[in-house]
Structure prediction request, 620 residues.
Amino acid sequence: MLQKITKWFGSPQFPNDEDKTRSALLLNVVLNTFLIALPVIIIGILLGDNIPRFERVIIVISIAWLTMFGARRIMLAGSVAMAGIATVVSIFMAATLSIYNLGTIRAPATAFYILTIVMSGLIVNRRAIVWMAGICTITVIMLLIGERNGLLPQPTLTVNITQGVTFSVVFAIISILLYLAVKSTDEALLRVRQELAERQHMEKKLRASEERLEILHEIDRALISTANTLTDIAREALVRIRRLVPCARVSVSLFDLKKNEAYFLAAAFEISSEIGSTPISIQEYGQHIVAELQRGRPFFMHNVLTDSRALPLDLQLAQQGIHAWLHVPLLYQGQLIGALNLGRGIGESFNTAEAETAQDVANQLAIAIQQTRLYDALQVELTAGQNLIAQLEANNAELERFTYTVSHDLRNPLVTIKGFLGMLDKDIRENRQDRIQTDFQRIAGATDKMDELLSDLLELSRIGRIVNPPEEVDLATLVQDALELLDARIHSKNITVSVARNLPSLYGDRLRLREVLENLIDNAAKYVGNQPNPVIEIGTRQDKNEQVIFVKDNGIGIEARYQTRVFALFEKLNPSIEGTGIGLALVKRIVEVHGGRVWVESEGLEKGSTFCFTIPNNVE
Prediction:
């Protein structure tokens, strides 16, 4: 029963129109109040015995009550504005008729004019206040004039009960309306404040989001424009991530899960610390951390001093002030390649939002690192390919020269042999014994020349393919062996040989290294020229971080334009000097097979020459 009454007196709701709902609430208060109060006023009039023409007043009030009932039905049907206008007009007419019948504007009904003005503003609109105030003012003036000129019925002011009830109803309605109006205003202001606070919060989040996106964009640009080294890439990212996620320390570590190793690529920190590039085991880094990162999830450690998962490395950094850790994975195509590590001081920790931000940076960083790795690998392959092409070009050039030599240098002995065989046949037929012996000697000399050329070519072809096992070789012993083999030539030209003391050891093929020294010493002996006091000096010197072995002479020297050509195959600067022109080519091939390099230094003709070469100690 109570629910039905409450529902009947309740105000209609309009979810899509807040202003209409508010107007209906205020109008519903007025209508319900009048529906209850008007019968009370009628009762008050009936109890009073001195109200003139009370029948007319009761009729007016009854008509007003029926109008109020009809207005409520109109309101419930959804026409709130029409119901409001009908209510205001009804109250205005009832008040005016009541004042006229009571015969004076001093009657309590005059207070209803104030009620109509208030209701016009709260229920209809703001312009209705002006209209209603003007109408009420004109009506009061006209009633005042009518009362003073005796145009109204004879007034009476002894209706105490009616007067009290009327004022009570007016005051109650106005109080309720003002209370609801103030409440509505407060609620509206509260909503405005809430909306303003929400807007400010959204603007703050938007600014933070814009700043975050800008920093991420900066990181992206930095990673693209970096110097293409992994360390530079990591440092560019670390400088900016601390603007997104403030922390005392941040570092990048890379993993080699096949070798079970981790190493730190780069780090940035406020608290004093050290970072080493020496790899550590995955167990030392934290197997449980790596396992979590492999699942694509961040790893949190809020306090290493109380966390049972803390490792010696964590406790070591805790002594430097790092107590909280956040590790996020560096994933490339689903594979874990490293981690982004962020550390904070005492009493601090990381939250999920910061982990998501760090993960965004880690994703960018992982792509940049892997692309750089692929680029570096491609560059290595490209360099190897270019070196191979250069080697092939050199081999082709050597092959062309070899072809020329075979067709020219080897043909000369054959031409000599063929020519002297014809002369030998003629001398035999003519029985020229004095010339037959000379013919045989010329044929034998040409044969020896061809044998020498073929032997040198065979030796050159073996270099780079047949290599004895490398070993540690005493350079002084090698020099002594070479000098013994060349003893006859050195003594025949009265050459003084000076060998430095404390010669180092070399690592390589003993036989081939001896051939290098033998050819260099033999070459120096051949080209002493007309030097009255020929000298050959053998020793070593240190050039930067490289040990250089040299064979120096004071012979005819080499012009600058020929200093590269002397190492070419079959190259002889002086054709009159014995030899095939293969010796220095053999030296170059042997040295390069051992990973070293060879060159000649000379200030020019008659200034002597210094042949230098290097042999790395790590050649296998």
